[in-house]
Amino acid sequence: MIDLHYWTTPNGHKITMFLEETGLKYKIIPVNIGKGEQFKPEFLAVAPNNRIPAIVDHAPKGGTKPLSIFESGAILLYLAEKTGKFLPTDIYARYDVIQWTFWQMGGLGPMAGQNHHFRNYAQDKIPYAIDRYVNETNRLYGVLNKRLADREFVAGDYSIADMASYPWVVGYQNQGQNLDDFPHLKRWLETIRARPATERAYALAKDVNPNFGKPAIRTEEERKILFGQTASVVR
């Protein structure tokens, strides 16, 4: 059994997508980040960066005790190696998947995240910041669209590279992007959205968080919790 410490964010969706694809047994432990549950000592013991997702595998392959992992990219790699799925064994194909997974972790996720923040959540609308992140998101969409021009998925077959990127493209409208400008990316998005495991993963989000799909910031207290963090929260 795997404990999944989860909330309904793009990084959380990556892991439920993988788990639903493979049928691994798991239990969701909700971490309501709007209420500050990510700062509880029991969660910090698993995820010292106070960010979801994190997992505890109570039966790790080749291990003798439970294994905890934080960071969504590391979790995807671990689960792929545990199951032997969605990560090829051939060295060329394997590192093609890994490099595109890291591309999402280092590029698409952070840039789209800052895009969301300055465009939708920041109380002070700073034109330079908005333009900077909307344009960089646009560039990254272009990179992905070009990559998908001659293949169905990011690294050929469906893989953790697709699961990593998909949740960050779902919110394209909130990122100021027109998907019609990226036809290959649009086709890819629709293909993954139609997968039964993706449908199940996003249905779970609605069960866990009744406010899923609504604005993430509804009160000033939530704003302070999510955007007012300093080192004091982990001391």
UniProtKB/TrEMBL annotation:
Alphabetized Pfam families for the sequence: GST_C, GST_N
Name the SUPFAM superfamilies for this protein.
Answer: GST C-terminal domain-like, Thioredoxin-like
- Which first-to-last residue range defines the signal peptide? none
PROSITE patterns tied to this protein = GST_CTER, GST_NTER
Annotated InterPro entries:
Glutathione-S-Trfase_C-like, Glutathione-S-Trfase_C_sf, Glutathione_S-Trfase, Glutathione_S-Trfase_N, GST_C, Thioredoxin-like_sf
Start and end residues of each GST N-terminal domain:
1-87
Q: Where is the GST C-terminal domain?
A: 90-212
To which protein family does this belong? Answer: Belongs to the GST superfamily.
Q: What is this protein called?
A: Thiol:disulfide oxidoreductase
**Organism expressing this protein natively:** Bradyrhizobium centrolobii
Record lineage: Bacteria, Pseudomonadati, Pseudomonadota, Alphaproteobacteria, Hyphomicrobiales
